[in-house]
């Protein structure tokens, strides 16, 4: 029987204890300490009862973390977590990576808590426990590691009845469910097929393919998955459906289908949410709840993540709005128009942070890996860079009057309103505020199906310190291969394929 822990006393009744977590080390540990849970967790572990820590649940076992040096960990495992070096790679570390087991007890066809050499697992974090060969093993720990760039870190660790993963097994598809099953059964070591050794995958982070479902209400009021053509989702032409919202299917069914076909992540974008109050978005919350029951990869929700007024006129902070979606099954929230407006204020204030923007408040509570900024840019052509103060590029695709240069203008409200802000300016502002990832759309490429805007992608990625997701323009599988070959983008998103 599963029991949600609501009071420290509930932990005493638990045979197995799972401590999942996502977000800021100091915030999470501080909340647990304030609720008097940490002593109860330590008692559970010291009594030799099974314990599974996930993400921050793993980090909590260590002595501390550089993310918040003033907040101590449980001290079960010696050592402190450090931030990934962002000089040569994007931070956070987001995506599918390995968990290679070390130690003298590993060999042949033995699997530690279901970990397999041919499997990849979903990681999302900025801080990690560095791996020093043999150090923890000499103290009886079994360690599985992953590599991000030149840095090797602890991906999973266990001793006795304690097991913890930096990755999210609940978001790692069949491979992750196998790990959870092994923990619940108490299968610390188990045999697997000889054939699986020969199918081991190369170590390191893989590129991600993200399936996006643009969701909106049709003219009958039902939420459907639709497809835009330069952000216009209504059918064109002389046929009977002309003028109606394109209907590609039901959101929950399509999300499950994409998951079964191998999508690394699923994103729901509520494309008309800027017109409505997100507090009334109960159908979208229900879609998240139902999807998370059968889809075991990360879920992102976008649209309407901003401060708003409730029915009584009371201001509801963006953090509370985001929390509703997180509690319904979302792993990340995507912020669009509100990020553009916040960036404008950032530059007006002399590039000073207010601490009150949706990006800042949500990332402070849940970690920057939980905040995606969705950018909807369009090309503005100019004859010369001297015609504008914005960052320009020389394009291979001249404008309507033969212009050889363009800049990328940020827009709000579903691309309906252009702003005096370019993509590089927005990128600089949201990185400072704590965004963890950029969803880089292209109004010019939306619905074209002839490939991504490689000029926009590479120009943005060149200046970005955080992961970039390429979006808009994919019409067939070859376009995904092409974007990874032609650019250094971290992930690619497709909708309506």
Tell me what the structure shows.
The protein is globular. It is built from 13 helices and 28 strands. The two termini are 41 Å apart. By secondary structure, the chain is an alpha/beta fold. Residues 228-236 and 239-243 have low confidence and may be disordered. The longest helix is centred in the middle third of the chain and has 13 residues, at 173-185. It has an eight-stranded parallel barrel with strand order 14-16-17-20-21-26-27-28, surrounded by seven helices. It has a six-stranded mixed β-sheet with strand order 1-2-12-11-10-6.
Integer average pLDDT: 89
Which structural class do you get from the secondary structure elements? alpha/beta
**Proportion of strand residues:** 25-35%
Helix content: 10-25%
Largest sheet: 8 strands, parallel, barrel
Total of helices = 13
Task: Calculate Rg over CA atoms.
Answer: 23 Å
Shape: globular
Unreliable stretches (pLDDT < 50, length at least 5) are 228-236, 239-243
For the secondary structure, the number of strands is: 28
Straight-line distance between termini:
41 Å
Q: Main sheet: which strands, in order across? A: 14-16-17-20-21-26-27-28
């Amino acid at each position: 029987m599963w029991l949600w822990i609501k009071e420290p006393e509930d932990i005493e009744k638990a045979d197995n204890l799972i401590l999942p977590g996502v977000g800021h080390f100091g915030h999470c540990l501080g909340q647990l300490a304030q609720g008097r849970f940490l002593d109860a967790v330590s008692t559970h572990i010291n009594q030799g009862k099974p314990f599974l820590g996930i993400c921050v649940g793993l980090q909590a076992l260590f002595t501390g973390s550089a993310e918040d040096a003033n907040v101590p960990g449980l001290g079960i495992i010696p050592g402190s977590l450090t931030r990934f070096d962002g000089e040569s790679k994007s931070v956070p570390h987001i995506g599918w990576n390995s968990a290679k087991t070390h130690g003298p007890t590993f060999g042949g066809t033995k699997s530690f808590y279901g970990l397999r050499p041919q499997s990849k697992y979903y990681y999302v974090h900025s801080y990690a426990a560095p791996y020093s060969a043999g150090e923890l093993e000499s103290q009886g720990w079994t360690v599985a590691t992953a590599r991000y760039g030149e840095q090797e870190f602890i991906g999973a660790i266990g001793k006795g009845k304690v097991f913890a993963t930096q990755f999210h097994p609940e978001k790692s598809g069949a491979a992750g469910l196998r790990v959870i099953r092994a923990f619940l059964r108490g299968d610390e070591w188990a045999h697997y097929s000889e054939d699986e050794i020969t199918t081991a995958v190369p170590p390191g982070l893989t590129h991600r393919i993200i399936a996006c479902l643009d969701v909106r209400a049709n003219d009958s009021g039902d939420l459907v998955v639709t497809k835009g053509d330069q952000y216009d989702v209504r059918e064109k032409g002389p046929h009977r459906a002309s003028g109606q919202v394109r209907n590609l299917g039901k959101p929950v069914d399509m999300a499950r289908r994409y998951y079964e076909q191998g999508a690394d992540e699923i994103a729901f974008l509520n494309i008309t949410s800027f017109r409505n109050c997100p507090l009334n978005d109960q159908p979208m919350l229900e879609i998240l709840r139902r999807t998370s029951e059968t889809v075991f990869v990360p879920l992102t929700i976008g649209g309407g993540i901003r401060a708003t007024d409730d029915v009584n006129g009371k201001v509801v902070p963006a953090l509370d709005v985001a929390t509703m979606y997180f509690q319904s099954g979302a792993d990340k929230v995507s912020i669009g128009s509100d990020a553009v407006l916040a960036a404008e204020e950032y530059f007006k204030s002399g590039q000073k942070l207010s601490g009150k923007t949706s990006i800042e408040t949500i990332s402070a509570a849940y970690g920057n890996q939980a905040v995606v900024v969705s950018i909807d840019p369009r090309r503005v052509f100019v004859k010369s860079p001297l015609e504008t103060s914005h960052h320009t590029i020389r394009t291979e695709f001249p404008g309507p009057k033969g212009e050889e240069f363009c800049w990328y203008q940020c827009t709000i409200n579903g691309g309906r309103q252009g702003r005096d802000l370019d993509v590089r300016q927005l990128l600089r502002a949201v990185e400072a505020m704590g965004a963890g990832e950029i969803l880089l759309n292209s109004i010019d490429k939306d619905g074209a199906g002839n490939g991504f805007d490689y000029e926009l992608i590479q120009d943005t990625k060149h200046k970005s310190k955080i992961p970039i997701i390429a979006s808009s323009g994919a019409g067939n599988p070859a376009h995904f291969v092409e974007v990874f070959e032609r650019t250094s983008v971290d992930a690619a998103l497709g909708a309506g394929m």
